[in-house]
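Q: I have 762 residues here and want to know how they pack in 3D. Can you give me a structure?
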Amino acid sequence: MEAQQVYAPHAEATRTVDLREMVRILRRRRWIILGTIGVLVGAAAVYLMAATPLYMATATVLIDPHRSQVANTSDTAPAPSNFGTDDAMIESQVLLIQSVAVLSRVVDTLNLVNDPECAPRPGLFDPIRNLLRSEPATNGRSPEEIAKANTIDALKQKLKVTREGTTFVIDIDASAENPERAAQIANTVADSYFYEQVQSRYNTNKIAASWLNKQLDELKARVLASDKAVAEFRASNDLVTTQGQTVNDQQLFDLNNKLIEAHVQTAEAKAKFEQVEAIAKNKGDPGTLDQALASDVIKQLRSQYAEIAKNVADVSSKYGPQHPLVVNAKAQLREAQRLIDQEVGRILENTRETYRVAQSREQALKNSLGQLQSTSNNSSQAQVRLRELQREADANRTLYESFLARYKQTTAQESLELPDSRVVARADVPIRPSFPKKGLILALAFMLGAGLGVVLAFIADFLDRRVKSPRQAEDITGRPNLAAVPLVGTRELARRAHRGRQALDDYDPEKSPMLPPLMQPPLMRYAVEEPTSLFAEAVRAVRLAVQRTGGGRHGNLVMVSSSVDGEGKTTLAANLALSLAAVGMRTIIVDGDLRNPELSRSLCPKAKVGVVEVASRKASLEQAVLFDQATGLALLPAPPRRRETAFINEFVFSGSMRSLLGHLRTQFDVVVVDSPPLVPLVDSRALAEQADRIVLAIRWDATPQEVVAQALDTLAPVYERVIGTVLTRVDLRRLRFYDYYRSSSYMEPYSYLGQPRVELTP
């Protein structure tokens, strides 16, 4: 229970991806990226070699709405056009150039129906499309019409009509296999577009003229009818007019003016009369009257009166008031005054008569005006109706005149129409093909291949669940990674194998069951035979961990195992045992894999007795143990027993096996057990319960993470005895792309001192 509480490995490695990790992924998966780039670039190259080159010719057209106004025959100035600012109108012209009407004229002009290039070509997927879609309806069209329609569709595919930004300029691009044909198509499309514009305007004006002509006939009849209605109504109601007015209205106007004039004259006559009457009553000076001033009699009398008054004054001063001359002079003065008063009375009577006459005239005019107003009131309703009829007649006449003028302008413009566009540059025969663009296609293929390769690289790396680095091993197991045993190159292995074949002639299996060092598998003694290699350095790192965790105790039992078969645990166990023996420790290696004794087959294939015989007391330990003469390492083999399979399956769980391992603890400092794999067999679990230290071998870039985690689950009861993991068959150069600083790659310069250079990669 206590061991289960301590056990806490991770189910899988926790992966943190940063910028450096991304770079490492791209470096270690570079062959996927390069392969993807090569495939796409190769496919692009094949396509470029097989593709038919196309030439593109461009005709440039300028939309100029002011150009058509040259033919404007109207007197009024044309309204300012917003054609250039209306994007919808420009886009409409772009669509018009690609319309069926324009392209149909191009097909007829260039006879494209008989041009093989414009004929529909069978595609790779046409059989599938024909299978899925229904038969097209002919709608009663002839084969020639269907062929022309197909040609127009093919021509649309060869055209590209675009507007340059927000300008008035439109480019007509035509593609063809023949450069001359491309220029012909582009120029013919432009000409057909202009013809379509002119024809459209001509048809529009013709239709407008015809419609206006029909409207004029109707409007003319309406004007005549309205004028006739006005004349008949005026005659029936005695509404005779002169200078636009009826006679009654003219009389009212004249009488009103005369009445105003008579009223003014009456007022003047009254003022004069009142003035003369006041002077007459008050005996005032008549010289203030205008009539008196204008009268010669008054002037003479006043002059006489003045002389007499002067004479009276002179005589009175000389003779006194009672003198006859004075009395006579005063009598003359009174006579003169009487004559003046008499003349003033006559003037007063004249002004009174004038005033009376003015009043009579004004009253007479008022009476006449009243009679005319009464007559006018009686005919007012008739005049309202007359004005209504007159307005309707005027409106009909104005509308008729407007339509007549527009009809004249339209008929005048039928024979003079200009398009709203003009050619800026006609299409020239292209010199170089426009398709395929080799550089662009190859660049796109390269970039697409690089992008797809990067994606595939990340996907492959993410889906790759094999153990690739010491850090992953630590994250999965929760135990430190002790070392990374490098992969020895094939040339080195071949060299060592050749050396063993040379020593085969001198080997006598009857003298010693154990193979001589030269005949043993190349890697079984590599750590002691190549002590400066990285392989030996990794084994020494494992040895150091075993020694440190053992604490110097006697009889440590170290089990070397793996998750599955083929991970290099036997090679690791043999080299670890040799390394321990080389430093003076009494070491024995036990072949604990009784079902597949790879260690025994590699070192002592002719052995007769081994683990089973010693544990069963059929042979002594001294009879079964073999020794390595160079290092003093003891080996307890396990000869194959094919006929005793059931017995072997249960032997590791027996007390005899437990007793044997306990006895070996007392005889040796370190007991190294090469155990079976953990996942497929349960034998190693029994051995693990007897072990003091467990080393787990993991084949680099081969063993899945889930398998390693499953192997750790089998060791859960003795998890605390697992001292670490060892990565085997590691390609150090590739390991740099996974965990550079935790690998031994930086030790590579020191691995050849005093030894022949060893190839570390296959």
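Q: Anything worth noting?
A: The first strand starts at residue 55 and ends at 63. The first helix runs from residue 2 to 6.
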